[in-house]
Specification:
Jelly Rolls, mainly beta, 7-stranded antiparallel β-sheet, 388 residues
């Protein structure tokens, strides 16, 4: 017999051992330890021993040995389990392990969470194949990797293929929903949204990209998709914003507008702003500086250094200064370009369907950053373009 070390402080002690060194400290009155069951009870552990937890069956039906279970409650002493199924998050996200024994209703027994389990029907499965939680059979497994909307839960590896005496190495690993990944933040998802990276927070977020179905091509001008109805005389020192979507990464080369009627001493500034997480114009990307607006016709400005534009919603900005020229405008808002302002108290009181906005009091250079609280809704959009 192996070495046995026993210390006791209470009455009856009975120890039997058949292998290795057993150390037992007895602090209660009647303790019996047998190494053949010690690994299950937690009193000793040898390399390769399975890991078990005691669970309770509160399902009202028998849980067969080899069925895969998830934590579905507790009774103050033990975790309660039910048959897992990959068809929903509720029945798969908390997958715990495999039943190591058949468990009657309202009984407690052993669930193996790691190790080898024998006596499993693995007929027809290639030895070494990965096993996944079934999305069709409660408590079952499959060697076919699931695809959405079925949840992927890895539950082990087939170690031995057999009709009734198969062996599985158990190692449960629950899959994750997209919005459970640590650098992804999905809020109130809607149809046709996409996941975009936001450098200011180092997070991937869901955003509505406002697509008009056209892919931008180098060498063309682009603007808001609408019919330019007439012209309007600009209100001095008021910046008029017009949304435009960049649906594929582009390089910005030019900014421009078209003057219908010039005015003596009139000047214009045209700029482009990137959006914040609520698609509001916030950060200046480029501007023309002060351009003469005394004459009618197209007004084009080539940037001294081209600027890379990632996918996103941008805002063209036009402001008339010193004297007011007349420029093409529209009052028709395109339904495919709804800007989702939201309803937070910190957001300006703009109708979520309004796409034309303005900023007053800009008598010099366009501001490098804009406080969204200073924006106002506008009934018109002023013609302006970007050249890529």
């Amino acid at each position: 017999m192996s070495d046995v070390i026993v210390s006791t402080t209470e009455s009856v002690t009975e120890v039997s051992t058949v292998d290795d060194v057993t150390t037992i400290a007895i602090t209660e009155s009647n303790v019996v330890v047998n190494e053949s069951t010690a690994g299950l009870q937690g009193a000793s552990y040898n390399q390769g021993d399975p890991i078990y937890v005691i669970v309770r069956n509160a399902t009202g039906a028998t849980l067969p040995k080899g069925s895969i279970v998830y934590t579905s409650g507790a009774n103050g002493t033990h975790t309660q389990v039910s048959l897992a199924n990959a068809s929903s998050d509720a029945t798969s996200a908390r997958t715990l392990g495999w039943m190591a024994e058949t468990l009657a209703p309202n009984a407690s027994g052993l669930c193996m969470i790691e190790g080898y389990i024998d006596g499993i029907d693995t007929q027809g499965i290639t030895e070494g194949a990965q096993l996944y939680l079934s999305g069709t059979v409660d408590g079952g497994f499959t060697a076919t990797k699931p695809v959405a909307p079925v949840h992927m839960v890895y539950v082990g590896v087939c170690s031995k293929a057999s009709a009734g005496n198969g062996r599985v190495l158990i190692k449960c690993q629950n899959g994750y929903e997209l919005n459970e990944i640590h650098d992804v933040l999905v809020s109130s998802p809607q149809n046709n949204q996409v996941l975009t990276y936001e450098s200011s927070t180092d997070l991937w977020k869901n955003k509505t990209l406002l697509t008009n179905g056209n892919r931008m091509r180098t060498g063309y001008w682009y603007t808001y998709p609408t019919t330019w109805q007439s012209s309007t005389t600009l209100t001095l020192d008021t910046v008029y914003f017009l949304p435009i979507e960049v649906s594929t990464p582009q390089t910005l080369y030019k900014l421009g507008t078209r003057i219908t009627t010039g005015a003596l001493f009139a000047t214009l500034r045209v700029g482009l702003y990137s959006s914040d997480s609520l698609d509001r114009p916030v950060t200046l990307v480029a501007e023309t500086g002060s351009l003469s607006a005394e004459n009618s016709g197209g007004l084009s400005y080539t940037l001294p250094t081209p600027i890379s534009l990632p996918i996103g919603v941008y805002w063209l900005a036009v402001v008339g200064q010193v004297a007011a020229p007349t420029i093409a405008r529209t009052t028709t808002q395109t339904s495919s370009l709804l800007i989702p302002y939201g309803s937070s108290a910190s957001v300006p009181s703009l109708n979520p369907s309004e796409q034309f906005i303005s900023l007053t009091g800009v008598s010099g250079a366009l501001p490098s950053t804009i406080n969204p609280a200073n924006l106002s809704s506008s009934t018109i959009g002023i013609f302006s373009v970007i050249g890529v």
